[in-house]
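Justification of resources, computational component.

The compute hours requested in this renewal are based largely on the per-chain cost of generating structure records like the one below. Each record pairs the submitted sequence with a full structure-token output. That output is archived, and it is also reused by downstream analysis tasks.
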Amino acid sequence: MTRRPAISFTLTLEGGRPRPPCLECGSGPRTATAARPIINHQSSTEPQASSPKAICNPFTLIEVLVAMLILSLVLAVAMMGVQAVMQSWDHLNTHAKTFSNTLQIDRTVEEIFSNAIPFHWQDETATKFPIFQGTGSSVTLAYMHRVNRLEDGAIRFAQLQLERGDLVCYYVERPPFPTNLSLPRVRRSILATGVADIALTYADLDGDQIVFVDDWGDRDQMPLAIQLRVTWDDGESTTWLYRTAGSSFHERYGDWKQKSNTNTQ
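The structure output for this chain reads:
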């Protein structure tokens, strides 16, 4: 095995002190003079060489179309949800309005119809005529009312009819009802809105059968009951039926039996 000859040298640095010989090889020193090494440090503020930017691959037409399709499906589902919420809100408002109208009609009709009584009024010619007038589209009647003030009395006069989609009730303190219902002595109350039509029928006794007529005519007695059927704008209808208070014309004491028209010999 050939041994590589060792080379030793002495590096004289600035200041003149020789560098000791190499301890590994043990050779004598070699004199050499060198200047102090100068190391240039790059400033950290100097721009570094940037690496080449990666080039992004563009989307293909199929990928764009698929993304647009997914976005369209998401928007369609969102729109369906919003539309369902809006429809539910509209149905809720409609039912709330219908319930409010129904409750107002129920309170008024129950008070007026169930307390209706026969009442006659004398005109300027001293002729008495009944207050009750019933047709298929309106009804005028007198009804008993609780006494709020003694000067008002316990009898009220009301007229129920349909006006331009509104179910309206007029009140006067003294009959008869004027032709011009806009006079100051006439009070007006709107019971319900959104009404398409009303139908009033009146119960009468025909033999032993109860029949309903849509025009009471000039009968002297009060009807047994009054029925009001309200048809709303959406096509639905609600019916009220109340027996009147002044229907004692057909009442009997004890067990009621139909009177016979034949004379007993």
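Residues 113-250 form one domain. Residues 7-16, 31-35, 38-47 have pLDDT under 50 and may be disordered.
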